[in-house]
Specification:
The complex is a heterodimer of chains A (114) and B (113). In chain A, 0% of the residues lie in helices and 56% in strands. Chain A is mainly beta. Chain B is built from no helices and eleven strands. In chain B, strands 2, 4, 5, 9, 10 and 11 form a six-stranded mixed beta sheet that branches. Classes of the chains: A mainly beta (114), B mainly beta (113).
């Protein structure tokens, strides 16, 4: 099973709302990632968790708050977003050992901020 | 910072023809180069990858070649089919970046029936 499951698939929120994106994998991967992808652009790395600890934060605004409650789950909490935050949010996971770094991506959450 | 350049940005081919997408990278110590395919409404899916100690890898109609001296790698798709139509991203893992991948800008491939 190489599946990464993201929920919800679509989300519309106002600028004052609080919402959360969820990601789940059962491949035993100990690295998990959040990416942001705008239309016709490559994924942009936001956060990396290694062994459930935040290891990389790519200068992401504090209105995005990641959380890794256990080795299978990754959340992204959203608060006071701006319209320019509308994008596809992708979760990925990978092994933490070896040269090969196959990242398995979920289908993403399409977020619209009104 | 480290950089991956990808060309062309769009590519149209007739069904049955071959398609080639090229990428160059900046860090000569990079050691891992995956290619991802992203269909509309889906997340990127790995289609083939190559490590820096290998010059070429093939999987059915798909092949990747790596030229470490020139710091470029290419995706070759033969006998293209309409279902190959998608956006393709190359990526590289740079020597100091742990698990991070740097992606190219993407190529929209359209296979015309």
């Amino acid at each position: 099973d190489t599946e990464v499951t993201q929920t919800p698939k679509h989300l519309v929120m106002g600028m004052t709302n609080k919402k959360s994106l969820k990601c789940e994998q059962h491949m035993g991967h100990r690295a998990m990632y959040w990416y942001k992808q705008k239309a016709k652009k490559p994924p942009e790395l936001m956060f990396v968790y290694s062994y459930e600890k935040l290891s990389i934060n790519e200068s992401v605004p504090s209105r995005f708050s990641p959380e890794c409650p256990n080795s299978s789950l990754l959340n992204l909490h959203l608060h006071a977003l701006q319209p320019e935050d509308s994008a596809l949010y992708l979760c990925a996971s990978s092994q933490l050992t070896g040269v090969v770094n196959i990242q398995y991506f979920g289908a993403g959450t399409r977020l619209s901020v009104l | 910072g480290e950089n991956v350049e990808q060309h062309p940005s769009t590519l149209s081919v007739q069904e049955g023809d071959s398609a080639v997408i090229k990428c160059t990278y900046s860090d000569s110590a990079s050691n891992y180069f995956p290619w991802y395919k992203q269909e509309l409404g889906k997340g990127p899916q790995l289609i083939i990858d190559i490590r820096s100690n290998v010059g070429e890898k093939k999987d059915q109609r798909i092949a990747v070649t790596l030229n470490k001296t020139a710091k470029h790698f290419s995706l070759h798709i033969t006998e293209t089919q309409p279902e190959d139509s998608a956006v393709y991203f190359c990526a590289a893992r740079f020597s100091g970046s742990a698990r991070q991948l740097t992606f190219g800008s993407g190529t929209q491939l359209t296979v015309l029936p």
